[in-house]
Amino acid sequence: TSFITSNYRLKYIIITCILVGAVNLTDVSFYEILGVTKQASALDIRQAYKKLTLTRDTSMIYTGPTRHIHANTTTSHKQNNYLDEGFYFINFYSPFCPPCQNVADHWKKLAEMYKGVVKIGAVNCKYYNSFCYNSMRISSYPTLIFYP
């Protein structure tokens, strides 16, 4: 029954986050961060996201259940490998946060379950604190953000 409960909990989290579109506990929407209007098309949002990430270090994002990418991402070719098409669901966390530690295993299972459908990633805000606080305005953990 423990597996069923945790599986149900994981599915509930996924459905809730997808229905909401973006779970973000800050006052800034991802539209503002990307510099697009709420009426922007998915293509416009994707292009704005790519443009923004070309100025950021995206080596903190992982695309698999246990694989962290630590590559030099200075060229646009490597950047495009991270941001081709599709949806991104990013967990901004702190390694010292108990709720974040509870989410970690579920987050890895989520990445396995939705591999090829949604790109699941995580950002360690202790290590990338400038990006989390200044660029993304993350103020609490865990913060889960869904990017279309």
From TrEMBL:
**PROSITE patterns recorded:** DNAJ_2, THIOREDOXIN_1
What are the recorded Gene Ontology BP terms? Answer: IRE1-mediated unfolded protein response
Q: What is this protein called?
A: DnaJ homolog subfamily C member 10
User: Where do the TM regions start and end?
Assistant: 12-31
Q: Keywords in UniProt for this one?
A: Membrane, Transmembrane, Transmembrane helix
Q: Which is a Gene Ontology cellular component entry for this protein?
A: endoplasmic reticulum lumen
| Presence of keyword Transmembrane | yes
Matching Gene3D superfamilies: DnaJ domain, Glutaredoxin
Give start and end of each J domain.
Answer: 29-132
GO molecular function annotations of the record: misfolded protein binding; oxidoreductase activity, acting on a sulfur group of donors, disulfide as acceptor; protein-disulfide reductase activity
Q: The organism sits in which domain of life?
A: Eukaryota
List where this protein forms a coiled coil: none
The species this protein was found in = Operophtera brumata
Q: List the PANTHER family hit by this protein, alphabetically.
A: DNAJ HOMOLOG SUBFAMILY C MEMBER 10
Question: Pfam families, from UniProt?
Answer: Thioredoxin (PF00085)
Is this entry keyworded Membrane?
Answer: yes
CDD domains xref list:
DnaJ
